[in-house]
Amino acid sequence: MSDDTPDRPPSTGLLDALRVRRNATIGTVAGVALAALAYLVRVFELVGPVGGTQRYPVLGPEGWFLVLGFVLASATTLLVTTVLTALTAYRRTREL
After folding, report:
1. Is the pTM of this model over 0.70?
2. Rounded distance, CA 15 to CA 13, Å?
3. What residue intervals traverse the membrane (predicted)?
4. How high is the pLDDT of residue 1?
5. Nearest 10 degrees: CA dihedral of 36, 37, 39, 41?
6. Torsion angle of the four alpha carbons 30, 32, 35, 39, in this order, in degrees rounded to the nearest 10
7. What does the pLDDT look like over 43-57, one tens digit per residue?
8. Are residues 31 and 77 in contact, defined by beta-carbon separation less than 8 angstroms?
9. CB neighbours of 21 closer than 8 A, spacing ≥ 6?
10. Distance between first and last Cα of the chain
11. Is the CB of residue 46 less than 8 Å from the CB of residue 4?
12. Looking at residue 3, what is its pLDDT?
């Protein structure tokens, strides 16, 4: 057994080829925009008041919707980034 670790090629070439940074930027913009829209619609009751009475402990309704908005933005960012990167990878394989 050898204690030497094998040299590995840098992964930046792959990230650049798949345009991950651009895809992540687009995903972040889409996620934040969707979360902001959902937050505005619900908190400011743009489509009417919430049906029934709800109790929102500790943070209040605005705080809970802000937390849910963060989760929605994160999930949307990951989804959009993954789909765009997969499409880029597919296009790159078709070019080769």
Report:
1. yes
2. 5
3. 24-44, 64-90
4. 58
5. 160
6. -140
7. 777 666 666 667 777
8. yes
9. 15
10. 38
11. no
12. 66
**Can you tell me the distance from the alpha carbon of 64 to that of 57, in angstroms, rounded to the nearest whole number?**
9
The residue ranges of every structural domain in the chain are 22-47+60-95
Q: CB–CB of 42/50 below 8 Å?
A: yes
Token pair 């209040």: residue: 60
pLDDT digits (tens, 9 = 90+) for 62-77: 788 888 899 999 999 9
pLDDT score for 62? 77
What string of H, E and C letters represents the secondary structure of the chain?
A: CCCCCCCCCCCHHHHHHCCHHHHHHHHHHHHHHHHHHHHHHHHCCCCCCCCCCCCCCCCHHHHHHHHHHHHHHHHHHHHHHHHHHHHHHHHHHHHC
Structure tokens at 86: 């997969």
